[in-house]
Amino acid sequence: MKGHEYRRAGRSALLSISVAVVMGLAFTVIAITSAWAHGEKAQMPFLRMRSVQWYDIVWSKAEVKVGETVEITGKFHLSEFWPDSIGYPKESFLNIGQPGAVFVRKEVFLNGTFVPRAFTLEPGKTYEFKIVLLARRPGDWHVHPVMNIRNGGPLSGPGEYIKVTGDYADFTNTVTTLDGKTFDLETFGLTGIYSWHFLWMAIAAVWVAYWFRRGGFISRCLRVAGSPDVQSADKMISPLDEKIALGFLGGTLLIVMVAFTRTEAALPRALPLQSGLITIAPGDPAMNAPENVLVKYERAIYDVPGRRLVVNLQITNNSNEPVQIGELNTASVRFLNPKVMKDAVKYPDYLLAPEGLSVSDEKPIAPGETRKLSIIAQDALWDTQRLADIYYGTDSSMAGLLVFLGQNGTRHVIEIGGPAVPNYTNIGLLKL
Amino acid sequence: MSYTDVDVPNRRDKVQAAFRSFGEVAAAASVLNWLLLFIFFCVLLGAYHIHTMLLMGDWDFWIDWKDRRYWPTVGPIVTIPFIAAAQFFFWEKFRLPFGATFVVLALLVGEWINRYVNFWGWTWFPVNFCWPTEFIPGALFIDCVLLMSRSYIMTAVIGGLGYALLMYPSNWPILAQFHMPVEKNGLVMTLADLMGFETVRTGTPEYIRLIEKGTLRSFGQDVVPVSSFFAGFVSMVMYLIWHFIGRWFSRTDFIARI
Fold first, then answer.
1. Which residues of chain A have pLDDT under 50?
2. Is residue B123 part of a domain?
């Protein structure tokens, strides 16, 4: 290679390194202030439609300052059509989906029981929850309730953006121990952590430096290679080296012993980590009382080109008032019947089909009446939420919550579910 | 006929002729020493860090995983392999008894970079929630045992056991303060439990915490010594196995074939 070729290669290398450094800095230094929704759409439809039926989810505030709290409340019905392919919810955990530690989870209650650890859920039951979050990091954050199920994965509920304003420097998170000492968990123990790690790393560096200064690698390697036997090579370790090593050994053991003993004396009430399943209280009996509107699921077709689900139902109204179908809620997507129901809680747009549900016979079902009818849930959300893949699963079935409204305002929430047959053309769709 | 046969019949002379004085040789060796130190440090840091993250993972990441049973068991067992291999390499090739300390120091530097830049800088987990396990006292111990004994068997038996036994007590001065009890809505929790609850880890539900499980209660409440001795015995075996892997990685006979 000639001189100018070296220079050219050098310039290219310099340019490449510069670009890499600039890109690296760009990715690491530029502050990321918002995060996009993610996650749940990647899950197969049957997971979302037949596991946790989230409903009545309310975010108490859309904007908070650092250090203020926001509540997420709501209910979920654990599907009676629980898929066989995922684990039974023996060990479950009510979690939060959020991009990093942007909120501190102050409280989580399930049926009024505080649940900082895992618990057992029962399919077919309805539970109510309350999550209290403390705003920690400024930004726009998409926050979901998530139910983690062992062997079932994370099952996300609907998410909503919460804007956090203010400055992280103002954030504190204090706690008082049973000994009556109060600490800020943001900074608690940092001095000890940094001091001990720095001390040991400094000692280690001195140990390495001592030996490195005694010939480095090259000369020691040559001397070892040139030694006729092991004993000759071992003579590279001098008596002084051994004394210094003894000093390091003794010093290390002494520091560990003294520090351990003093810590034990200073903190006699240290407990082991706490673990174990938490038992959930039964909750409001009305949530799991038998409904007096009975629904028989007869047949369902998912119309692929039409992006609509058509379900044939037989409904018996045993209540004392006429009822109408107002909503189908499946996979957290709310298909509303606009003639009966409107969104009253500012449900997230990306999961709301305000005119997505129609009923073949809109006339209220009278008390004592049994009627066969079809509901049609139709919206582009079948595609955008990737629920259209319902016909592509290993167990082509659906489930969801059907919401009836009584004439007097009574609400009946009933889970329906069963097989869903795909229809690839429009032929035969109406022969339900 | 090879290139060497034709062009460099007296290679030794040419190498000697590359330096004009002994001072130049010493200077080049010094530069090479520092370069090797840097390369060894970075290579071992990267490899050991990946190894440790994959095998010790959450037990090393979070304080609400640092329990009395699995942490002192898993930690030494999964970290001693690199120690054994590195000790063999540095001792056998250079008679340098700093293999364990060197590789553990590299690991800790890598872990601190990871915890500070990634855990804190990118996802804002408090540093007091995700500090790495301290292994340096055990590493100094096992280095000194190798130096004194000059025997891999003795280093495996005494050093491996001591390395495991030292892990918990050398971390306790940092960890103990997080085990102070608090009451939260009628439940007793340690500060570590509380921080684990309050610091949301979307991908880490509480039930996957593998802590304090099992029936190891025969020695009363003090399960740490039992766990540590068990880790020590397994560490002895791991040391012997991995010192052979170090031996294999330290081979240089391939150079003769180049």
1. 33-35, 37, 431-432
2. yes
How many separate domains does chain B show? Answer: 1
Percent of chain B scored above 70 by pLDDT? 90
Query: SS3 helix, strand, coil % of chain B, rounded to 5?
Result: 75, 5, 25
What ipTM did this prediction achieve?
0.92
Q: Between residues 70 and 99 of chain A, which touch chain B (CB distance below 8 Å)?
A: 91-93, 95-99
B215 close contact with A: CB closer than 8 A: no
Q: Is-contact A361 A371, C-beta < 8 A? A: yes
| Contacts A–B by Cβ distance under 8 A | 269
- Separation CA A75–CA A86 (nearest Å): 22
Write the DSSP string, A284-349: -GGGGSPPSEEEEEEEEEEETTTTEEEEEEEEEE-SSS-EEEEEEEETTEEEE-TTT----S---G
Q: Which residue has the tokens 């119309």?
A: A303
Distance, in Å, from the CA atom of A320 to the CA atom of A392, rounded to the nearest integer, reads 41
Contact B166 A179 (CB under 8 A): no
Q: Which of A97, A137, A197 sits opposite B134 (nearest CB)?
A: A197
| pLDDT, mean over chain A | 91
CA-CA distance, A181 to B191, in Å (whole number)?
12
Q: Do the Cβ atoms of B182 and A192 come within 8 Å? A: no
Backbone torsions φ then ψ of A277, nearest 5 degrees: -70, 145
**Residues linked to residue A182 through DSSP beta bridges, in sequence order:** A176
Do the Cβ atoms of A271 and B181 come within 8 Å? yes
Q: B37, A216: Cβ pair inside 8 Å?
A: yes
User: What is the rounded radius of gyration, in angstroms, for the C-alpha atoms of chain B?
Assistant: 23
| Structural domain containing residue B226 | 22-257
A chain contacts of residue B211, beta-carbon cutoff 8 Å = 273, 275
Residue B17: which residues within 8 A CB-CB, separation 6 or more?
Answer: none
Q: Please list every residue in chain A whose beta carbon sits closer than 8 Å to the beta carbon of residue B185.
A: 107, 114
Q: Are A297 and A313 in contact (CB under 8 A)?
A: yes
Asked whether the beta carbons of residue B205 and residue A148 sit closer than 8 angstroms, the reply is: yes
A181 and chain B: CB distance < 8 Å anywhere?
A: yes
User: Among residues 306-345 of chain A, which lie with CB inside 8 Å of chain B?
Assistant: none
Quick one: closest CA in B to A190, which residue? B128
Q: What is the CATH number of the domain that holds B89?
A: 1.20.1450.10
Number of other CB atoms surrounding residue A333 within 10 Å = 24
Task: Tell me whether residue B108 is in a domain.
Answer: yes
Question: How confident is the model at residue B84, as a pLDDT?
Answer: 98
Token code pair at residue B75? 């930690």
Q: Give the distance, in angstroms, between the CA of residue B19 and the centroid of all CA atoms in the same chain.
A: 39
Strand partners, A418: A398
Residue-level pLDDT at B5: 42
Closest residue in chain A to residue B222, using alpha carbons only: A272
| pLDDT tens by residue, B178-233 | 999 999 999 999 999 999 999 999 888 999 999 888 776 666 667 899 999 999 99
- Within 8 A of A146 by CB-CB distance, chain B residues are 202
Pairing of strands A160-165, A63-65: parallel
Q: How far separated are the first and last CA of chain B, in Å rounded?
A: 14
Q: Would an 8 Å CB–CB cutoff place B41 in contact with chain A?
A: no
Q: Give the max Cα distance, chain A.
A: 104
Q: Does residue B192 fall inside a structural domain?
A: yes
Residue A307: is it exposed, middle or buried by C-beta count within 10 angstroms (0-12/13-18/19+)? middle
